Amino acid sequence: MADTALPVSMTLASGVERIFPTLTLAQVQRIALHGRVRPVRAGEVLFEAGERSVPFFVVTAGRLEMILPSTTGERLITVYRPGQFTGEVNMLSGRPVLFRSRATEAGEVIELDREQLIALVQTDSEIGEIIMRAFITRRVELIAQGLGDVVVVGSNHCAGTLRVKEFLTRNGHPYTYIDLDRDTDIQSLLDHFHVTVADVPVVICRSDMVLRNPTIQQIADCLGFNQPIDQTQIRDVVIVGAGPAGLAAAVYAASEGLDVLVLETHAPGGQAGSSSKIENYLGFPTGISGQDLAGRAYTQVQKFGAQMVITKGAKQLTCTRKPYTILIDDGLRVSARTIIIATGAAYRKPPCENLSRFEGTGVYYAATFMEGQLCRGEEVVVVGGGNSAGQAAVFIAQASKRVHMLVRSSGLSDSMSRYLIRRIEQNSVIVLRTNTEIVAVEGNQHLERVSWRDHQSGSIEMHDIRHIFLMMGAVPNTQWLNGCITLDAQGFIKTGPDLSQEDLTAAHWPLTRAPHLLETCLPGVFAVGDVRAGNIKRVASAVGEGSIAVSFVHQALHE
Ligand SMILES: Cc1cc2nc3c(=O)[nH]c(=O)nc-3n(C[C@H](O)[C@H](O)[C@H](O)COP(=O)(O)OP(=O)(O)OC[C@H]3O[C@@H](n4cnc5c(N)ncnc54)[C@H](O)[C@@H]3O)c2cc1C
Q1: How many CA atoms lie within 13 A of 121 on its CB side?
Q2: Ramachandran region, residue 324 (left: φ > 0; alpha: ψ -120 to 50; beta: rest)
């Protein structure tokens, strides 16, 4: 339809046309049916950085520039020409936008509000695909280039810095990182905001708000991650947890017309979001990073119109009357006709004093690109003999000098995939140490030394090692259930046929029918994924259970 956009800041590896596609005349005309055509004046600001739920614009005449405003001035990001459209993933989630949009000359646009845009991407699959692909690739490019409304000032030797970076990364939010240890000019920036080095990590949010060593809740609030929760609304289904199981349940429930609220304490993706590469998930023959999978799923959830709130976990379930209510972290309550529990599980740690002191500064529970960078060229320890330990060892071995894989038992777990066992055996960087356990860790600001005991010989060795990856399995996140739900001996939730007659009698099961598959001892409350007793701890099974549960939610809603 017109000449192509010439992005100013975005020097793109992945192809301009995918990120800034130009629609055909026929496509533009179809979009016009969903919105309104209106003129724009030269210099008119169509939306301002930080505004929420801004409209979506397709340029039909003239030019729209996208600008990143900052305390030091404006930075031109790109210019949209006729046939091109504004927006990235924030437009679907309703979160504040990162850029200002301004018309450089008089022209014309098609304007769609958020609901009209969601209706468009749901009903016109050709245009929906172009828009979704552009939104996702734009966000990926922004993250890659650190273009956004957040600056993190910190140090790689500080656990708080890693915590903040991890939170932003896992939530797919672009940020600029300034390393205090490397950037000597940083003091003038800190002076500008009257902060001392003792306040690190410092998060500068939308150019003006300065957060000193903030909690993740403060960051989420500052960046406007969440829309307000209407406490009077009774939801068809509240999904607790946004790992693969919760995300799948949200996609299916919202796409089937249910009113869905998702509560998540940390970031979409759950444990899978921390996985460097998932190689056995159907449809991704070359593997997909957990971050990528979670980002795509999150966008899909937004596309179907489910509401998700981040850093607002479930604290307590009230189950004595219907609708059920869930108390959320900040004292709010939400009511639900049905609930899907998808809270997964938390990592196990070896019984070793001091270990928690080094979390984030040498002790990690995930082996992603970020951690991989930290231990490049060094020796590392991976603890555990299951699939996640195997994956971590193979991944970390790509860039590190030596990987000591410590397994307490006499060999790798029976449940470890054959392909991983082969890769470990064939990798000369990985040293498998069976019957071995960590007994001590030492260091000052950062982990510096690790000691382990060989239980067969009784000998203890100490090594100068600065990085440990704990991959020892997990305990279920079921503490918040307030005694409402029948659990197994390990605290995992019993469902369907696993609930014995005694369990149901003790729980006062009120119906004549037996619980559905995946249904707990409370009618209309389901458990899916890693939190469920007997679950196979895999992404595919979590996704499968999340989607199956929705069909039973429909039945429960009609009961
Ligand atoms: C490093 C690693 C690599 C892995 N690699 C693979 C792989 O390659 N292939 C594979 O198939 N599987 C893999 N797995 C296993 C897979 O990730 C899990 O089986 C899967 O993530 C389970 O999904 P889930 O949704 O049930 O739970 P989780 O992924 O654990 O998600 C649970 C979510 O609930 C949230 N939550 C917890 N409590 C609350 C609360 N009270 N309120 C609100 N939210 C809460 C958590 O923050 C979390 O986001 C890996 C796991 C790890 C740790």
Answers
A1: 26
A2: beta
Residue 405 to residue 396: CA distance in whole angstroms: 11
Contact 49, 98 (CB under 8 A): yes
Return per-residue pLDDT of the chain as tens, 559 residues. Answer: 433 343 444 444 446 778 899 999 999 999 999 999 999 999 999 999 999 889 999 999 999 999 998 777 888 999 999 999 999 888 888 889 999 999 999 999 999 999 999 999 989 999 999 998 899 889 888 888 888 888 898 887 788 898 999 899 999 899 988 888 877 667 666 776 677 777 889 998 877 788 999 999 999 999 999 999 999 999 999 999 999 999 999 999 999 999 999 999 999 999 888 777 788 899 999 889 888 999 999 999 999 999 999 999 999 999 998 999 999 988 999 999 999 999 999 878 898 888 878 877 898 887 877 788 889 999 999 999 988 899 999 999 999 999 999 999 998 877 788 899 999 999 999 999 999 999 999 998 899 999 999 999 999 999 999 999 999 877 899 999 989 999 998 899 999 999 999 999 999 999 999 999 999 999 999 999 999 999 988 899 999 999 999 999 999 999 8
- 263 C-alpha to ligand 1 centroid (Å): 14
Given its phi and psi angles, is residue 534 left (phi above 0), alpha (psi -120 to 50 degrees) or beta?
left
Helix axes 290-303, 244-255, angle to 10 degrees: 20
Among residues 222, 220, 223, 204, the alpha carbon closest in space to that of 212 is found at: 204
Residue 310 one-letter amino acid: I
- Does the beta carbon of 271 sit less than 6 angstroms from any atom of ligand 1? yes
Closest approach atom of ligand 1 to CA 347 = 53
Structure tokens at 370: 């970020």
Burial of 553 (0-12, 13-18, 19+ CB in 10 A): buried
63 lines ligand 1 (CB under 6 A): no
What letter would DSSP give residue 274? T
Q: How far apart are CA 296 and CA 278, in angstroms?
A: 14
Provide the residue type at 48 as one letter: E
Cβ of residue 342 lying under 6 Å from some atom of ligand 1: yes
Chain mean position to CA 67: 27
Nearest atom of ligand 1 to the alpha carbon of 241: 34
CA distance 516 to 497: 8
CB 105 within 8 A of CB 62: yes
